[in-house]
Structures are given as structure tokens and as C-alpha cells.
């Protein structure tokens, strides 16, 4: 109904005449007796009108609130998410359900999504992939009383029943879809095996990716359901000691004999031994990716590498404290012709540690495309180790044909030595160098004014006497500087020389155009010297210049 056609829902009983009433109030003449009854009647009618107005206002307010709610619901019909095709919505759901965390009483993202609305529920239940990623914690069944005696955890049976029902729901709704499992299992002392583990073990033929945290993947450690399982779809396994343990024991011998498709292995703080080699006897020949993290020794690493003729990616992290008699390879280094990616991270912090040197002195990798050499930033040695000779020998020995990405992090390599290494990498496209976090040893750091000048497209420098440009294929450069007094003018000049957006300049100088630069400075600096970089950023160069302690980039 339009406002012009609106009618009152009640008729006023009193005609309001304030002008006449005000005139009478200003006079001091007494009210006649016959008028008193008229005033009382009019006053009573006015109060009745007020009550009617209040009732009408309440009715209109309620109607207004109802209309607001109705309008909000109507606008929901216009929401863009309602116009999303089911295929896109399912992909969004899949990204949200990457783990389905069932720990600490949680029900998982897939279950939450299926409770939002009818459409979400129908889609979630029909899309089995949403229910196939599970993160599960199976706690220990014991605790200690005040006297230190072993006791059963209260309400354990009730919690187990709930979790088992939830896991069964996920297994049913995942149908025949391959499973990705993240299992954190504590050993039991009082009761029998986790009933939830038995449910999962029955579906081992669907396991595709497995992260296992616990004492050991071994029936003898209180997990009888893990005995003689078949894993026809299993492609990757990661063993992790977890937060409550220093290490994890090796799986039983031939535990994964019936897992023919494993291509990726990760050992994090696992006691690798002959059992490990036996457990994956059917895996080594076709293994593509190995992530080997240990705080123990590298004794069995060399045996494993000899068993992996198709290895394409290798990540080694840990420390070697000199107690490993087989930690170094003094004879002919092993040739890994199929290896395309190598990462070596040294977590040690004392003078005896030589993990990085131990590894690279034992390998020859002619077909690498990516190399990462890193000292743990929090444990970088305050006394610089002489890593350059061994690294240089590794470079000379490997004669990299197609190394495109190099990361040097927190290693003490002097600027002239870094230039020597880069001369051997004509195909390098991505370079990332991080200074060690000890400014007092700046003379041992790779990033200096001379090093920056050596990257100039055509100018000679004290470290580069040749006219030929260094790393002529460089497209991305990342530098993290810890020392004070970094020269911004040399940096800007070098970057400007490598910004070559036109084909003529590229052909004339014999190098490619730089496409991305990142400079992270260890202290707050003046932004003005870096302002010339803005014109390159507008033209298409990705530029990031950031100071330590500042949220925003100065460029």
C-alpha cells in the first residue's frame, strides 16, 4: 500500500486544541463546576488515545522488524554464492577440507559444511573426496595418580566411542575414495588397542598418503592392527616423532612390502637402521622423493642412496657431531644422475658439526635444477666454518648443466668466493642469498658492495674483471642483508642495468631481463635512495624492499 492511500487503524477520541487550552491555562479564572466533569471525561479519553497509539506503535514496530528480517532473507537469494556452480563450490569445499581435524573433540570441516544448509549438505555428502582427509589423535590410556601409580584415564571409553563413531561416519561418506591420513598415536599400557585404529586398518587398501606420529609403525608397540597390511594405493609416507617424543623407531621389517606405489618418503627424527632398509625393500628402486631429517647419525643414508637409482628430489636435514664413523665419504663421491633437487640444512651449532660438508663432499649431481644450502638461522655458528672449498669442489665436480635455482642461507662465504661459485652457473635464473645473523662477522658475509657491483650488466668490478655479465640468465634475485652500511646506490644501479624490457637490449648485452627483486634489510633505512626503483615497478618489474621491524615495504 502506498503512503498516500494509508489509513489510520483507529479514530482519535479527542480533538486536540492546544491554542484554546493554552489560553485557559494562562487565565486565573476558576473552572466552573459544570466544566470539571467535561475535563475529567476529556482527560480519560486522551489517556485511552495514548494507549491506542502505544498499541499501534508496537504493532508497527513489530511489523517493521518483520519486514527488515524478510528483506534480509530476500537479499540472501541475491547472494553471489548462490549462483556459484556446484563444481566451483565443491572445489572450495575441498580446499577447506584439506585435513578434517578430529582432534580434541572437533568434528572436522566436512561435517560442519554439511550442517550449513540443504544445498551444502547434499553437495558435501555426495562428494566423497571431502571426507577422505583425516587428522586424528589417539591418546594414551593411562595417567599417574598422586602416588605415581599407573591408572586408567577417566571417561576414556566414552571418548573413544564418540571418536570411533565419527571416524566411521567419515569412512562411510568417503566411500571408495583414497584416504589421506595424519595419525598421531600414543602407546597404550592399560587397555587394548585403539578401536579407531582398527577401523582405519581395515581400510588400508585405500590409504594414499600417510603421516605417522607415534612410537613405531609396528604391531609389537601396541598396534596389532598394523600387522601384515596391504597398501596398493599408498604413494607417500612421513614418519615424525611428534611433540612428546625425541625420536620414532623404525617400522618392522617388510612392513611395507605390499606397498608397490610408494614414491615419497620422509623420515623426521626416526632411528633409521637395517629394519628401515628392509621395511621398504620394495620401495627404494622406484623412490622419487626422500626427506631425511635426523639428529642422530647419517650412517645408513649412503646405503639408502645406493638403493635409489630413480631419486629425483633429496632433502637432508640434521647434524653430524663427529660420532658417526660412516658420516663422511672419503672415497669416490656417489653420482646421482637423476637428482634434480637437493636441499641440505645444517641444524648444528658447534664446531664439530659438519653436516653440510659431509653431504656435499659425498655427492656428485650433474643434473640438478634446484640447490638449497642452508644453516639453521637460529643456530648459525658464531665461528665461521670454511664451507667454500668443499662447496666449490662440489660445483666443479658436478659441472651443473641446468641449475636454475640456488639458495644460500646463513653460510659464511665471502663475496669473492660467491662470485667464483656463480661463474660456474651460466643457466641460473633464480638466486637467493641470506647473510648469517651475526653483523660482527660482516667480512665473512657474501653480500657486500663489491658483490652487488659484480652483478652489474656491463660494468667491471673489483670481483669481476671480465666484460661478460655474471649469471646472464638471472630473472629473480632475493637478498637478505644483516650488515650495516648497505650501499643503496650500487644496488639501484645494478638493478637498473638488468632491467631490459626491449629485445634489442637483451640481444646487445647477451642477458635476459630481470623480473623480480626482493631486498630485506636488517635495519631501518632511508627510503629515498630506493625511489628510482618505483619507475621499474610501474613498468613491470616486481620490487620488494623491506626493513626489519617494519610491517610495510619501503618500496
Number of helices: 16
Q: Per the principal axes of the C-alpha atoms, what is the gross shape?
A: flat
Task: State the separation between the terminal residues, measured CA to CA.
Answer: 59 Å
Structural class: alpha/beta
**What is the number of beta strands?**
18
Which strand order do you get reading across the main beta sheet? 1-4-5-6-7-8-9-11-13-14-15-16-17-18
- Which blocks of ≥5 consecutive residues have pLDDT under 50? none
Main β-sheet description: 14 strands, parallel
Helix content, binned percent: 25-40%
> What percent of residues are in strands?
15-25%
The whole-angstrom Rg is: 37 Å
* Average pLDDT level: 84
Protein name: F-box domain-containing protein
InterPro entries: LRR_dom_sf
Q: What's the short story on this structure?
A:
The chain is of the alpha/beta class. It has helices at 18-26, 33-76, 86-96, 109-113, 118-126, 156-173, 195-201, 274-279, 301-306, 355-360, 388-398, 415-422, 449-454, 488-498, 503-509, 533-539; strands spanning 133-138, 142-144, 150-152, 179-185, 207-213, 236-240, 264-268, 289-294, 313-318, 334-335, 341-346, 363-364, 370-375, 405-409, 430-434, 476-481, 516-521, 542-547.
